Structures are given as structure tokens and as C-alpha cells.
């Protein structure tokens, strides 16, 4: 009996020696962690389509003509090609312009003839700056969103989007989004796809305007037209 008890005690001790280790819990990412991941995903994009909408206080593209920006849509091809169709209002009429950014320079069509020519100096609309790793969207996500919070996960068109909110300075946006310099501190909302960290939408709200930028078709083929 003593031998049986001794064996049982030894076996019990062995069981404790070979017990499975307790798993270390994985910390939940912070809002900043999520945004840094989204910044890295944005930097890796090879092509994407976008749509830019602005409402409220106007963005003046040409003071002499009183041309005001309304919306733009286009395509980006890494590392430095971008095409955009831009809708403007001038002299009570609506005009559609084509804009093209290439390493050789920025071009814009004449609204009357449809022919490309150099963009006027001081043009406040520069979508290629969105993809500048030093001062564009990826930098904004990683370093310029203040007090970020996760508001939740929202279902949209078959996707799960993580919704963030925070603050951003107008200075951080001056080369990225038009018409957002009225206030020193602005409200920003961002939507990022849960399963791949792709940025899908940015909305910047000022006291008298709102600018929304949407991205879609990540890494799908795009067409950048040749100037004529």
C-alpha cells in the first residue's frame, strides 16, 4: 500500500511538471497601433482610385475667373502618375477639367478647347501629394491624428470598416486636402477595412466646410491617359 501511495505521489508530481504553460494574452491594439498599420498598408498601394468631395466654404482654384472646386475623381499609379477629372463652377456655369500629374510636370485641359496645357502656378488642388510618404496620407495616419478613438466597426458593402475619430491641425492638411485651412483644429473621421488595414474614407469637418476623400479599387489596374 505504501508503494502504491508513493507511486501515485510521484505521478502527481510529474503531471504538474509537464502541465501546459499558461498562454500569454495578446494585448489589444490601441487606436494609434491600428492607424500605423493603415499607414503602412497605404504606402504599399501600387494603384488605387479615389473620389474627393467638398462642400461649404468654397475652394477657389482661379481667383481671376472665380473658379471654385466642387469634386474630383481619378486614379493613381505608383510611383508618380495620377489622373483626375475635376468639376468646377465659374461664372455661374459648371465645367469639367482633366488634370494629369506626371514626372514631366502637371497638365490641365482648357475647358473651352479640351486641349492639355501646363497647370497654372499656385493650383491648390494637388492629389499627387496624397501619396507622398513624407507628408501625405500615410504620414497623416501615422503621426498627425490627435486623440484618436475607435468608434466601432461598421458593415458597408460587404466590408467591415473600423471607424476612427480624432483631431488634426489644418497645417497637417494643407498639402493634402483643399479648403481645410479655415480652422486651426479640425475634426477628422477615418474608415479602415478590418481584414487588410486598407484606408477607405477620410472626412474632415471644419466650422464652415466638409471635405470627404474615398479610396477604392486598391491594387486593381487603372488607366492613366496620355495627354493630347
How would you describe what is shown here?
This protein has 228 residues and is α+β, with helices and mostly antiparallel strands. The chain has one domain: Clam (outer membrane lipoprotein receptor (LolB), chain A). The chain is 18% helix and 43% strand. The chain is built from four helices and twelve strands, in the order ααβββββββαββαβββ. Strands 1, 2, 3, 4, 5, 6, 7, 8, 9, 10, 11 and 12 form a twelve-stranded antiparallel sheet that branches. Strand 4 and strand 5 form a beta hairpin. Helix 2 packs antiparallel against helix 3. The longest helix has 16 residues. The mean pLDDT is 85.
Question: How is the topology of this model organized?
Answer:
Layout: H1 2-17, H2 31-43, E1 47-56, E2 59-62, E3 67-77, E4 81-90, E5 93-102, E6 105-109, E7 116-118, H3 137-144, E8 146-156, E9 159-169, H4 170-173, E10 185-193, E11 199-205, E12 209-216
Antiparallel strand pairs: 1-3, 1-12, 2-3, 3-4, 4-5, 5-6, 6-7, 8-9, 9-10, 10-11, 11-12
Helix pairs in contact: 2-3
Quick summary:
It contains four helices and twelve strands.
Question: Which labels suit this protein?
Answer:
outer membrane lipoprotein receptor (LolB), chain A; 43% strand; globular; alpha+beta; 18% helix; 228 residues; 12 strands
Amino acid at each position: 500500500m505504501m508503494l502504491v501511495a508513493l507511486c501515485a505521489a510521484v505521478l502527481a508530481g510529474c503531471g504538474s511538471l509537464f502541465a501546459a504553460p499558461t498562454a500569454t494574452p495578446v494585448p489589444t491594439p490601441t487606436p494609434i497601433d491600428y492607424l500605423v498599420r493603415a499607414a503602412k498598408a497605404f504606402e504599399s498601394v501600387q494603384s488605387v482610385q479615389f473620389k474627393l468631395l467638398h462642400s461649404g466654404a468654397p475652394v477657389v482654384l482661379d481667383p481671376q475667373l472665380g473658379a471654385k472646386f466642387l469634386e474630383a475623381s481619378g486614379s493613381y499609379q505608383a510611383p508618380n502618375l495620377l489622373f483626375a477629372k475635376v468639376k468646377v463652377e465659374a461664372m455661374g456655369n459648371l465645367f469639367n477639367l482633366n488634370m494629369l500629374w506626371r514626372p514631366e510636370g502637371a497638365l490641365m485641359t482648357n475647358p473651352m478647347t479640351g486641349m492639355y496645357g501646363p497647370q497654372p502656378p499656385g493650383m491648390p488642388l494637388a492629389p499627387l501629394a496624397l501619396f507622398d510618404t513624407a507628408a501625405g496620407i500615410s504620414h497623416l495616419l501615422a503621426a498627425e491624428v490627435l486623440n484618436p478613438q475607435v468608434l466601432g466597426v461598421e458593415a458597408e458593402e460587404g466590408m467591415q470598416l473600423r471607424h476612427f475619430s480624432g483631431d488634426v491641425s489644418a497645417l497637417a492638411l494643407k498639402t493634402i486636402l483643399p479648403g481645410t485651412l479655415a480652422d486651426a483644429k479640425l475634426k477628422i473621421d477615418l474608415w479602415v477595412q478590418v481584414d487588410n488595414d486598407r484606408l477607405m474614407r477620410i472626412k474632415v469637418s471644419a466650422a464652415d466646410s466638409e471635405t470627404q476623400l474615398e479610396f477604392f479599387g486598391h491594387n486593381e489596374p487603372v488607366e492613366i491617359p496620355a495627354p493630347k
